[in-house]
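User: Fold both of these, please.

Assistant: Here is the first one.
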Amino acid sequence: MNYADTHIHLEQYHYDQIEKLMAEAKAANVKYIVAVSMDLPSSQATYALAQRYRSTIMPAYGFHPEQPLPRAEELELLMQWIRVRAAYKERFAIGEVGLPYYRGLELLEQGEQLDKQPYIELLERFILLAKELDRPIVLHAVYEDAAVVCDLLQKHQMKRAHFHWFKGDAATIDRMIEQGYFISITPDVCYEQEIQALVKRYPLELLMVETDGPWPFEGEFHGRETESAMVVRVVEAIADIVGRDVEEVAAQLYHNSNQFYRFE
């Protein structure tokens, strides 16, 4: 059985951790890894990793929304740098981009209100860039933010969208299914009822798996360093939830990842 980790912040690991993670991923038949980025320096670090592990890593370049907005010149440098990568015919995705749901919650707890409009405008620029360059887009958009992102995707007729570690209401889920948007499932499917219910509801043909490392997980993963090889356990959990043979589920999820990211 082959696997793909469709979302990990690989550049956030130390050098020796990356060596170990990549070796263990290979041993577990994790054939491809989508390494996402936070900003321009992060994108450049991800690019270097993709050059080092050319046959395995698909890089994604963007600006993570759970941080202060970039300065205008910083954003322009990032956009220009991404266009240069495209000019060299390199394979990559746009991401991680989206809306700052958790940052908004943190500010609310401090008695402040986050103005999301500038983040919406920033995301729209990345959606337009992804469409211009014909690249998949990796999205950070949960709960009510997901509906806003769906509006933007439909406005620009952007279909090749991947919502990572998605959570949301039934209406948004149905809308995403109708549009054919992909979502990816993390190791928390082994212990989070909300994610287990999502797996039951979402078509297997639109599912992928991820780790979002180095983010740590609980349950059986408590105290363990998050690594791409954990997607094997995620696939097993999904197979158990949908009541299908694990080999069949693994093959479908791998096919989905390859279809979306065009690894091969």
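And the second sequence with its predicted structure:
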Amino acid sequence: MKRQRQLSTRDLNAILAVTSALAAPFDLMTMLGAVVAASKQVLGADRGSVWLHDRATDELVLEVATGIQPIRVPSGAGLVGACARDRRLINVQDCYADPRFDPAVDKASGYRTRCMLTLPLIDHKDVLVGVMQILNKTGGVFDADDERVATALAAQCAVALQRVRMTEAVIEGERMRRELEMARDVQMSTLPAALPELPGYDLCGTFRPAEITGGDTFDLAELEQGLLIVLGDATGHGIAPALSVTQMQAMLRIAFRLGADLDSAFLQVNNRLAETLPPDRFVTAFIGLLDPQTHRLQFHSGGQAPILHYQAASRSCRSYKPTSFPLGAMPIVRVKPAVTVDLLPGDALILLSDGFFEYGNAGGEQFGEERVRAIVEAHHGRTATALLDFVLQGLDAFAGGASQEDDMTAVLVRRAALA
């Protein structure tokens, strides 16, 4: 019976060093490099490499190799692919005599591969995570003892690899969580801390993001030009849209405080956003100024609709369409005349982002404009806050527990009815 080769103290220490490293924090490249270096030392090999399995593309990616540039190969191609497919160790004593061997890497690097051990890296859940290859044993070819040692090293490599990937995923998740919370704090700080108190008017506004941060915003602020009313909705939801609407809101405030009129502010903010936003980003926004003395509202709507005006005289809602493209979609030279609306006693302006209208139930049906109209017309005598509560209650009853998929933002401005 053939006796197994005894490892030298130096080789044993190298293997134990790899094992002990599993308990320490390290990055992926450092860990894989340590495994390859230990494999070369213990097995008396000239080179080593580790291929990682990309499950998304079903490819093997050469992440660590001594003297070889990173490459990708389809899973199943060549020796490395055969090892991944069959999940079995392959010991090739003459690579150029094996039809599965691809000499392209040798030709590109000027290196000649004589013999090779190729081992699958299988994690504790029996999932393929990669393939390890050990090249050119000094003074001969790899034998059964080498296979035994290499298998132990491959097991260590698979465990370490999965541990590092899990650690990096946790770290990335925590980093994203902190970034989202910071973005949320910034975004929330731009919302009105307290709503203006206008004699004869009742105001309310709310913002409910679908995620930690959202792409919606609103503003209600007293300016020299009148009551500023803003509802904005950036494409998508998350950090980027949150920053887009925050940028728009800040520019609007600055423009009006520098004395700009409604047309100039809309034009300049649109053109600035067109310069700074990525091509696939824009903001739909209602921007209006209400004169509380004349009760006249003027507004521009860049892609934001429907805009509902409850008219107490007819006890019905009138709907307005957008007056322009979404902000930031393209530069414009001039704007169309602002829409003018007179708010009579008992009238109300209802602005809702599309997260309300497009909220779907389990059957895929959307809440829609008509349901909002019906609720507003049925409860028009309520305060602005109560009226919004009725809309939210109606939406919840309609949704039947379906999850919120988009940000929801609302602004209601109601003029008091005559006593």
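The CA atoms of residues 107 and 408 lie 59 Å apart.
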